Amino acid sequence: MKWKRKVNREHPGKARKIIHIDMDAFFASVEQRDNPELRGKPIAVGGSKMRGVVAAASYEARKYGVRSAMPSVTAKRLCPDLIFVKSNFDKYREVSDLIREIFYSYTDLVEPLSLDEAYLDVTEPKRGPASATLIAQAIREEIVAATELTASAGISFNKFLAKVASDINKPNGMKVIMPEDAPAFLAALPVEDFHGIGKVTAARMHKMGYRTGGDLRKLSEMEMAQRFGKVGRHYYRIVRALDDRPVNPNRNRKSVGAERTYSEDVSTLSVMKDKIDWLAEKVFQYLEGRDNFGRTVTLKMKSPEFVIHTRSRSFSGEIRKLQDLKEIAHQLLTENVDEVPVVRLLGLSVSNLEREGGEGVQLLLPFEEE
């Protein structure tokens, strides 16, 4: 197979040099940095011993299976010594701003994905060496100097490979994938390690006998579509490293959401929770059907006076269970119901989706339940 480099529209005649920077256990690492007593210990940011949902977990906690978006009760059962720390998103944003200043000192082509990760196009950097690898190393060193936190980096000629590469040597590591190395790298890569192939699809692929990129590459584009639907065409491209997406500084956050206007105002918390559960099931059904989950949950509440309130919570990993989504939505609702005690509309959306592309989806629902 002959591998072709896509035309670089931003820098004609040059192959892109893309870096994906991903902070290591960002929320938890910030808390451990600011409280020396927490260093080296398993901690969970967000939640509590008896209620709530984990927003992020330290690497010490992850060894026990604790993960983002997990109910706190489950996390405590897995790790009895788990320490719960209250989240402080204002502080995380301040640290994130410092990190982004470093990014922008090298290039204006920065595409933030969340507070703790971003793509950078350094084909023509504003400063530093011409080597993307050396720039990535310099950025990581500057992040440590400015924040006392570590970051991992993936470097390649397109966004997909850079994203996959940043996970290879975590934490505090780097991975470079050159064009000539991409075919062998992808052929050996387990399907569950492909960014954009979730656990459900990976398990399905295993049952069908496809365990690596090399196995999938034996299929034609039509065969991919027949086996996996529309997204099969996406899989056909990524196993061949075909990704010509530019780093987009003005990237719009894609989301999947549902909302409902009620014929009568709702003023009882338990009833609100029931209605939120119904919305969560609709949203999750859509996400699960496309095996494309997200990391940010947003609750929308509209008062009888038509004043709209929105509250969001982000996590370091995708929300992959319906019950987790319901728990997060309940928590947002409970924390804000005093501000909006009566609602005429409720909405729920999930953004920061694992697989990019497409537009935001607003599910069309009837005015009121039957």
TrEMBL record:
One of its GO terms (cellular component) is cytosol. The gene is dinB. The active site is at residue 117. It is found in: Cytoplasm. The record marks 27 as: Substrate discrimination. Mg(2+) binds at residues 22, 116. This is DNA polymerase IV. One of its GO terms (molecular function) is damaged DNA binding. Poorly processive, error-prone DNA polymerase involved in untargeted mutagenesis. Copies undamaged DNA at stalled replication forks, which arise in vivo from mismatched or misaligned primer ends. These misaligned primers can be extended by PolIV. Exhibits no 3'-5' exonuclease (proofreading) activity. May be involved in translesional synthesis, in conjunction with the beta clamp from PolIII. Its EC number is 2.7.7.7. The keyword Nucleotide-binding does not apply. GO terms for biological process: DNA repair; DNA-templated DNA replication; error-prone translesion synthesis; SOS response. The lineage of its organism: Bacteria, Pseudomonadati, Bacteroidota, Saprospiria, Saprospirales. It comes from the Bacteria. SUPFAM superfamilies: DNA/RNA polymerases, Lesion bypass DNA polymerase (Y-family), little finger domain. It catalyses: DNA(n) + a 2'-deoxyribonucleoside 5'-triphosphate = DNA(n+1) + diphosphate. Its cofactor is Mg(2+). It comes from Neolewinella xylanilytica. Keywords: Cytoplasm, DNA damage, DNA repair, DNA replication, DNA-binding, DNA-directed DNA polymerase, Magnesium, Metal-binding, Mutator protein, Nucleotidyltransferase, Transferase. Residues 18-198 form the UmuC domain. Belongs to the DNA polymerase type-Y family. Monomer. PANTHER family: DNA POLYMERASE KAPPA, DNA REPAIR POLYMERASE UMUC / TRANSFERASE FAMILY MEMBER. Binds 2 magnesium ions per subunit.
